[in-house]
Amino acid sequence: MNVFEKFQTIIILSAVGIGLLLGQVAFFETYAESFIIPFLLLMLYGLFLAIPLQRLKDAFKNRKFFSTSTIINFVWTPVLAWGLGAVFLADHPALWIGFIMLMVTPCTDWYLMFTSIAKGNVHLSTSVLPINLILQVVLLPVYLFIFAGTIEPIPLATIGESIVLVLVIPFALAHLTRYVMRKREAFLNKKLVPFFAMAQIFFLSMAIMAMFASQGKYLINNLEVISVLLIPVLLFFVVNFLLAQSVGKALKFSYEDTVSLSLTVIARNSPVSLAIAVIAFPDQPLIALALVIGPLIELPILALASQLLLSLKRTNTEKS
After folding, report:
1. 319, part of any domain
2. How many contiguous H segments (helices) and E segments (strands) does the chain have?
3. What's the domain range around 286?
4. For 305-318, what is each residue's pLDDT tens digit?
5. Which of 107, 125, 134, 246 has the fewest other C-beta atoms within 10 Å?
6. With contact defined as beta carbons under 8 Å apart, do 178 and 48 qualify?
């Protein structure tokens, strides 16, 4: 984990604060929006570049784990997110949509660090990353159309345009890069991929800063959304954590595999959702705000969950 990832929460919070301050200046408020998409494209290009699709076959070697994590992440979780939103966010439709977008996209990067901290099966967790990435790219527009469409109408053309712009294009460019540089793998894997891996948080922060600068005045008047989102976000993590522990025990997973399952079903992938939200809902900044606030709650929870898992391991060891 590089120094930027260690201080990711602080960096993102700083980007939000700086963006809000810049948004009070007319010049920045006017032109900041034009920088959002370029920074998001760079961030997503780096994300896709770091996940080689050659590992896809590894996900299917442990069929029990693969099928369990896939069902929880892509069948159960969207229903849970919609249900929690119906209970707690019915009066805030924009936040409800943002909440759903955040929760239906499993994490494809930093949760590996927390899996390692909790002494989980990092190799197993890594093997499902490519399939998680592909499924969320394919299914996010479906979830938007089905679940978010029950909250307010969302034109299919709008979803399609945003998917092509911020997912298909960087995804294609990333794997075109891998193909073109297949004879220079040393440079690709030791220079280019590490650079973009380290720079992802920078590009994301710049996009967040630009977004908050362009909508600063509006968002300052709606900061109460943090308290509105806190309970459903916390409940999502608690429910999925307990579910993963119960399923892992029922299926007789090892401690290491249960850790991997627990963290892959609670960690979320806000950058992908944020990119879609910025394009699909440019006139509803509260949707994007929900996707920024979510990770600020999520990262401390992942740290706490990894320590809780270690505590459970010690307790079980002492009993045996």
Report:
1. no
2. 20, 0
3. 3-314
4. 988 998 988 887 77
5. 246
6. no
